[in-house]
């Protein structure tokens, strides 16, 4: 978790550095009175790098993904809950007394 | 509806608590959430928490829910004294509470004094005539006294008002099946499937009832519902696989003379048989020979 987090922070730093470079580049173009068509190649590369780092961190840091299929091994329904609203107490447990004497002590 | 992960979590916690590993409060919360009926264990571990003053004060306001859960478990294990003590504590804390009144009624029921319980429930219903749980307790009381037709009558009246209560539909279906009134049971299961189409166990029960009713259309519909159960459980329900094999052979027997358009492709049965054999080989390999001989006799 530590490594993923650090890579995420690193990715955010790279993105902010790319943004700063682009702003500087635009300022330079304004001085030279040229059109701003797009950021230079190295800034684009930096953007892609920062993007991949951030995505990787976002996928690994939160943990394992849970299955969404209703028929997968974890999610399949194995039994229904006992219908406790209609529970009756008139069953055979009357003749099986509990071994330990249970009392509420206070 | 208990999923596989929840079941394994419950079993793990149960083992842990039984062997003295602590975690009794999580176990009790999980039992309450999943609505399973493990009354002996709840009684044992609940008493161990409540009898220890330090653990009791650590619970805070959840203490009263535990008292209620413990009272129900005590009634189920036939310890009416424990239940009476719990209800007394709850009464002291919540004097005019309907929930505690309901618990008192259930205690009378558990002790067997049906007339007094009936009086208690009617007085509670006077104040609040639309209390669902009290209506259901009246049905349960009729069932406990052996008056199954009375239970059916009460339950039908209840379902006329509260049509969306799927627990009640399920209870009615089970009562009808116990009385062998399969057509009515099929109707109840249809209501259940309509309201909860993703629970495979209702499809399975409906298919079982249709297979029991027999007759060509019923068998074909039963086969479809066994197939949908297999779809919803990812092929891991043995009963549905066996159901497909039985349905196909029953349909073949019934339509032997007719020679209609043969749209019954034998693929489904052979696939189900293969899946069954694989499952048996993996889980119970000593019974595999029984299975293969049974399947062979079905393929006439």
TrEMBL record, chain A:
Compartments, record wording: Endoplasmic reticulum membrane
Main location as per UniProt: endoplasmic reticulum
GO cellular component: early endosome; EMC complex; Golgi apparatus; plasma membrane
GO-annotated molecular function: inorganic cation transmembrane transporter activity
Keyword tags: Endoplasmic reticulum, Membrane, Transmembrane, Transmembrane helix
Membrane-spanning residues: 42-66
The family this protein is said to belong to: Belongs to the membrane magnesium transporter (TC 1.A.67) family.
Protein's name in the database: Membrane magnesium transporter-like isoform X1
Organism: Durio zibethinus (Durian)
Lineage: Eukaryota, Viridiplantae, Streptophyta, Embryophyta, Tracheophyta
Gene this protein is translated from: LOC111311827
Automatic annotation (TrEMBL), chain B:
Subcellular location: Endoplasmic reticulum membrane
Keyword Endoplasmic reticulum part of the UniProt annotation: yes
SUPFAM superfamilies: TPR-like (SSF48452)
GO cellular component: EMC complex
Residues annotated as domain EMC2 TPR-like: 100-209
The family this protein is said to belong to: Belongs to the EMC2 family.
Complex and partners: Component of the ER membrane protein complex (EMC).
Protein name from the UniProt record: ER membrane protein complex subunit 2
